[in-house]
Amino acid sequence: MFSPYGPTLRELAVQALSSVERGYDLLAPKFDHTPFRTPDVVLDSVAEALAPMGPFAHGLDLCCGTGAGLDVLRAVCGQSVTGLDFSAGMLAVGRDRARSAGPPRTAWVRGDARALPFGPAFDLVVSFGAFGHFLPRELPGLFAQVRSVLRPGGRFVFPIGAPPRPDSPLYWALSGFDTVMRVRNAVRRPQFVMYYRTFRFGDVLRELGRAGFSVEHRALPALGRRPDGSPRCRLIVATG
């Protein structure tokens, strides 16, 4: 799962016993060599789906990490792209990674997605792989924050994978991980919030609607289908 340039087991353990912010500061130099980085096939599929929805002028990558999602925004936004994350380490790696990137202009902002430091400045907000860091009770506030930074008619777009079947090894691996994290967070502070099975499709649609979004979803064909014919991954398109 990890390249030779990725973190050691000890480094991952130290990260998991830290706060979320400190953990990602520690992981940042090696993050792009882990399976936690969103795969290129997902990024490319989202960029392809976004192209006919544009053109967009200003885009925001919410919880941008080292900036893989900013490449998606650069492909579809004509004037500016912004990455927001609360890990200074991840932002520093992202800035270094993007030094040779061309237009549009890029900004890197340290901040909390639950209290966005922007007005209604964006036509498009995307996010990749970050929602496990938010507890279900935080979704209403999170989605309200996103809507507040979108211009009228702006879009909040992100992929969401189909949940693994209960008879699959992945289901039990993710369930086991979530259980371990709950135990860890019950006995140790600060918490490290990262769960794989709490961001559920039905809950997401409901809370986006309550936040005032008009919501549609579509399959991402490049990511394939499950044996029952359902998509392995869908793209959520929420319009403000």
Automatic annotation (TrEMBL):
MF-aspect GO terms: methyltransferase activity
Originating species: Streptomyces nodosus
Residue span, Methyltransferase domain: 60-154
UniProt name for this protein: SAM-dependent methyltransferase
Domain of life: Bacteria
Presence of the UniProt keyword Cell cycle in the record: no
Keyword Methyltransferase attributed: yes
InterPro entries in the record: Methyltransf_25, SAM-dependent_MTases_sf
This protein's UniProt keywords: Methyltransferase, Transferase
Pfam families: Methyltransf_25
Gene Ontology BP, a term: methylation
PANTHER family xref list: METHYLTRANSFERASE
